[in-house]
Amino acid sequence: MNVQEHIDAFGTVDGELRIGGQPLSRLAARVGSTPFFAYDRGLLDARIDLLRGLLPSRVELSYAMKANPMPAIVQHLAQRVDRIDVASAGEMRHALDTGIRPDHVSFAGPGKTPAEIRQAVAAGIIVEVESSTELGRVVTAGDRLGVEPRVAIRVNPDFAVKGSGMRMGGGPQQFGIDSEQVPELLRSFAGGADVLGFHVFAGSQNLDAEIIAEAQRRTVDLVAQLAGSLPAPLRYLNLGGGFGIPYTERDARLDLEAVAENLERLVSGPIAEHFPEAGPVVELGRFLVGECGVYVTRVVDRKVSRGRTFLVVDGGLHHQLAASGNFGQAIRRNYPVALGNRLAIPADEEMSVVGCLCTPLDLLADGIPLPAGAAIDDLVVIFQQGAYGLTASPTAFLGHPAPAEVLV
């Protein structure tokens, strides 16, 4: 996708980007300082509506809070999705503060501490165990608290998902229990917890609909093999997610209709046949919130060094690590960037946007076309910033102030 398509998604007014119906300069004045993250509530709702309109009605949507734990976003999504997935006790508290039913919250991730497990068991949320050790700790917590814990087994599948930004299944992994070990674990399980079913998450940030569809088919086949080892009928089937969003010009948008058609065949076929009591879950983070957000930073200097023009801004990788290319990318590619207050002016001069940190890694855009008149106080906008932004960045580096976040 090109930059103009991202601009069009938000809209413009009087040559400025519009966010949540407000011109960028007016929003910046309301926030009071730069940098800041802004999330468009209308785009967030539109994404939910799109998924609801395409996915089978039996499929439940779960929000992976790790993508963006901003309280206002979590509160808003809690009214629109069916479930929330958390990865720490802190995220668990945020989720429960929304008023969502505890049994609609799942807790995943390796390295859960005994204290976190006790909190989860006491709250009544689903603990997705990632090892036999965790399962034992859950049972112990339930025994001491006098409650029956709710548990799902996170499975490390025997297949990997090609084309994913991060592979989280297949081969040796810190995530989940190897699929070949699951039957023996369940056979030796002496009780003390209600084992509801399985969670299989093989990869994230995938833009190929057929690869996602194949992973879902293989996941259902794998769970069908494992379900016979459960002490009770399967009632929880988390198919993972992995739906990607386009970050660079070379990225094509995911064919969501093709993914939905494959899910419909699975839901009406093998899932209905083998797991009539299970509400299949699709767990999404980035795909829900990623495209609704922007990072806005102000130009504080313009300089030319040996023929190369740099715009120096008051933000940087300490707020937006991924845009700098330092969040696991094998090859650095520019995110979509524009001068949000100069959209009516042609972008015809090559410039680089750099942050305010004392490291050459603080490069937010390398050699991109921007308006020739770009100057101090102009507002640089980086798109696709609704997920893995502020909380996935080294905010304490060099002691700069934290940016504001607004949902508009």
From TrEMBL:
- Tell me the cofactors it needs: pyridoxal 5'-phosphate
The UniProt entry, under InterPro entries, shows:
Ala_racemase/Decarboxylase_C, DCO2ase_PEP1, De-COase2_N, Orn/DAP/Arg_de-COase, PLP-binding_barrel
Q: Which Pfam families match?
A: Orn_Arg_deC_N
ATP-binding as a keyword? no
The Orn/DAP/Arg decarboxylase 2 N-terminal domain, residue ranges: 46-289
List UniProt keywords, sorted A-Z: Pyridoxal phosphate
The answer to keyword Metal-binding applying to this record is no
NCBIfam families (alphabetical):
dCO2ase_PEP1
- Can you say what this protein is called? Pyridoxal-dependent decarboxylase, exosortase A system-associated
Species annotation: Microbacterium capsulatum
